[in-house]
Design brief:
- The protein is about 55% helix and about 10% strand.
- With about 160 residues, it is mainly alpha-helical.
- It folds into 3 domains: about 45 residues, no CATH class; about 50 residues, no CATH class; about 40 residues.
- The chain has a two-stranded antiparallel ribbon.
- Strand 1 and strand 2 form a beta hairpin.
- The longest helix is centred in the C-terminal third of the chain and has 19 residues.
- It is elongated.
Length: about 160
């Protein structure tokens, strides 16, 4: 994960507990964390500049956004690290995209796929139809037909 203040790697994670059950997470490199922890007390005591006040308003508005399907608020996601439903990816896409890029390195799946996964929708529908026919043949105790259908399924899965 990258530092929130510079392009270096973050290795310190600070969670500040704010009033009204709010939390602020900071991911900082060692140098930025040192500056943050030892900055003048005036900022920490609430005598911050207008930019920080605007940032707080923006953060508060973000934390109040919620998914219309499951009712999950972004602050809840930040606190427990779990989304409530698949629609949350669409609702919070602006916030999740940089997070996923930092954690995974990309926003789309690039991993392995099962070897027996059909390559086309036509092959998928053919396999589904053959599996139903196989189940029906077994139910009717037509074992010769079931063996022939089983062999067809194997050929489709291997190709």
């Amino acid at each position: 994960m990258k530092c929130q203040r510079c392009p270096k790697q973050a290795n310190l994670h600070i969670t500040e507990v704010l009033p009204e059950d709010r939390f602020e997470e900071l991911h900082l490199c060692e140098q930025c964390a040192h500056e943050y922890l030892y900055e003048p007390q005036a900022k920490k005591n609430g005598k911050a500049t207008e930019g920080v006040a605007e940032e707080d308003e923006e953060l508060a508005a973000l934390n109040q956004r919620e998914c219309p399907e499951c009712g999950l608020k972004f602050v809840q996601f930040r606190n427990n690290g779990r989304l409530g439903c698949p629609h949350d990816y669409d609702v919070f896409t602006e916030e999740l995209t940089p997070l996923l890029e930092n954690i995974q390195g990309d926003t789309r799946h690039c991993g392995k796929t099962p070897r027996r996964l059909p390559q086309t929708r036509q092959a998928q529908s053919e396999l589904t139809k053959l599996r139903r026919a196989l189940q029906q043949a077994v139910t009717q105790e037509a074992y010769e037909d079931a063996a022939r259908i089983r062999d067809q399924i194997r050929v489709l899965e291997e190709s």
